[in-house]
Amino acid sequence: MNMTRNITNDTDSFPGEKENDYLLDSCPPAKRVTPLENVTKITALLVIIIASLVGNILVITVSRRNRNLRTIAYSFVINMAIADLMTTVINMPESVIVEIRNTDQWFPGEVGVVMCKFWPFLQQVCAFCSVLSLLAISLDRYFAICLPLKRIMSQKLSRVLILLTWLLPVVSSAPMFVANNVVEISGELLCLEVWPSPFDPVKAHTDYTIILFVLFYVFPLTVISFLYSLVIFKIWRRRVPGNRSTVTIEAYSRSRRKALKVFISIVVCFALCWLPYHVTFFLSSYNEIYFNCGLPRDVTFIAVFFSYATSAFNPCIYLVLNKEYRTGSKRLLYSCCCKGSSTFHPERATGTSGHSRIRASQLRAQISVNIKSPRVRIARFRRRRVDSYHEDLSKGDAFALPYRSARAEFESENCRINK
């Protein structure tokens, strides 16, 4: 997340020589940071680091210990938690060190040059992987809720999507190996974005900023908003299955509102937290003073802080609004705090996935009796299984297990019975 200023390289000489100093003559004087401002920034960063570490470690640990969470839908959540955890460990400590030292001075020597190229690259890969994981989650939810009878999101496809969430950021961040370098300005070594010849530094920086903005903000935000709009519309127009008592209708209405909260929280959190980050890059691209002198430290801090905040908000959304994670985290924390109850029992959790398996087994027993035609059996199974899935939503979990595993079990048993 290298957001320091850029240097215009008008000569063929390598950056870092005395001709770069003239660029600072027209720069406004740097604002003096008061001790109170410094302590406030450091405290805010430490709060985000602690919240992100605790939240993402909880998500990963609960997912590994709860068998109900070892599904395709939750594999994308785990992938996002890993990316957010790496962002916390790799990106945030650097910002804390910068605020403590109150300077952006970089490491000297060959080690400094290598770190200047590799470290911002790794930071950007982790951050953008988290963004693409949100996109993969929205795609999986669309397939599971809007197209519940089609086996689109297979195990193989989910692995391909997870691989792409890492591969695309790696490819798009590769130019940083060329552009980033250590530059000496006014006696200080800084890690800056310096596009060498034959690139035009202004045009290269602007074009690269636009590409990243489209790939990792405009496109994901548009697709996520569109898919979740379709999902919400599908849930909202779905009629209550079975007996339409007042209690059932109220429960289903609550489930709709809870699913709406989950999806809106994801979209709003992503849109608001990443917008300042991209706006600052556009300011540095289209403003000559900001391009040569860099943005004010306060503006840069706010943009970076909100981009870091997504790593803490993402796990909080699932730990608070997802019943499986909420139950699993409570049991995990209880087992850590109380020595006499250290065993975790996922089968006792009150999540919707356990109910799905029970209803699926009961459904197989019911439809295997007094029905002769296999087509009738499969048709009734599909209809009841979809109703069962929407009953899962009435439990308040927008990540309820899809119908697929139960349907596969039924069709396998159906073939065995027919033999």
Automatic annotation (TrEMBL):
Q: Which PROSITE patterns match?
A: G_PROTEIN_RECEP_F1_1, G_PROTEIN_RECEP_F1_2
Q: May I have one GO cellular component term?
A: plasma membrane
Q: Which residues form the signal peptide?
A: none
The alphabetical list of record keywords is: G-protein coupled receptor, Membrane, Receptor, Transducer, Transmembrane, Transmembrane helix
* Domain G-protein coupled receptors family 1 profile positions: 55-318
Residue stretches spanning the membrane: 42-60, 72-92, 121-139, 160-179, 208-233, 259-279, 299-321
The record's section on Pfam families has: 7tm_1
Which InterPro entries did the record assign?
GPCR_Rhodpsn, GPCR_Rhodpsn_7TM
* Subcellular localization: Membrane
Q: GO: which molecular function terms?
A: neuropeptide receptor activity
Q: What is its main location?
A: membrane
Recorded coiled-coil stretches: none
| Assigned protein family | Belongs to the G-protein coupled receptor 1 family.
| Protein name (Swiss-Prot/TrEMBL) | Substance-K receptor
Which organism's genome codes for this protein? Acropora cervicornis (Staghorn coral)
